[in-house]
Amino acid sequence: MGFGRDLRNSHEGLVKLQDWELKLLETVKRFMTLRVKSDKEYASLLLNISQQVDKHDNNSQIHYVSTVSKSWTHMVQQTEQLSKIMKCHAEELNSGPLHRLTMMIKDKQQVKKSYQSLHQQIESEMHKVTKNDLEKLKCTYRQLTKDAVLARDKYKEAVVKGKETEKARERYDKATTKLHNLHNQYVLAVKSAQLHQEHYHETALPLLLDSLQKMQEEMINALKGILEEYSEITSLLTDEIVKVHKEIHTSIDQIDPLSEYDSFIDVYKSPEAKEPIVEFDAALLEETENLQANEILWNNLTADSLQAM
């Protein structure tokens, strides 16, 4: 299967195909442009929140070695690193696949323009040789035939009358000569048209269509490469990004609840101080009767309240 063999009479279909492919490429270009924009914005947001968090942490008034703090700091640093990677990838996408896609669209437009121009050129030449030129010769052929017949009839009439026979014969020979010469010219033109027609159908048109197919296939291959590079650049499984997430995971694993506060205790521990023992203030009994320090008084005045306790 091929354009040159199977699409010789499918010019309109080929033009529609190229128009559709151009629209598709424009859609892919818009998609990649938006992806570059969104990735840059995402990278900027990651950097912004990392800097905001870092600023807050630097204002902290508590200073001790914390596994949570170390892990968190590392996570923030890796998030900032991720923002740099995302920004770099967005720039690579813009200067690589997106740029090449833009150039491809221009090339594709030029291919379409060249194909239509060449197709129109060989079609026009074909129409000229097999239609227009032959129609002109046929028209002249008919007129010269009429002239020759008229000259012949006048010559016969002159012979019958015996008047101006030589002149009539001369005009008849002249008209016949013109007709015969044109006949030969027409025969050669028909043969030329046949050869041109054969060349058009067997060589010129298939060659043009096969060339178009080759360029189409080369562009498809180039587009495949562009999409593959796009996939690689935007992948979240690249070594750089995987490394960032592994670093974050490792830092989280280093959080140890059992040793988290060891450093804090070392920094903020205080010497053990003996608190004075709480004792009954005997001075309270100096002006009382029947009351003893550290002893409950049970009598008919306190019985109800003691039972209620």
UniProtKB/TrEMBL annotation:
- Report which superkingdom the organism of origin falls in: Eukaryota
Q: Where is the F-BAR domain?
A: 1-260
Q: Name one GO molecular function term.
A: lipid binding
- Is DNA-binding included in the keywords of this UniProt record? no
Q: Does the keyword Protein biosynthesis apply?
A: no
Known InterPro entries for this protein? Answer: AH/BAR_dom_sf (IPR027267), F_BAR_dom (IPR031160), FCH_dom (IPR001060)
Chain segments annotated as coiled-coil in the UniProt record: 127-185
**Keywords on this record?**
Coiled coil, Lipid-binding
Question: Which segment of the chain is annotated as a signal peptide?
Answer: none
GO biological process terms, alphabetically, are: regulation of actin filament polymerization
Q: What is the name listed in the Swiss-Prot or TrEMBL entry for this protein?
A: Fer (fps/fes related) tyrosine kinase
Give the species. Cyprinus carpio
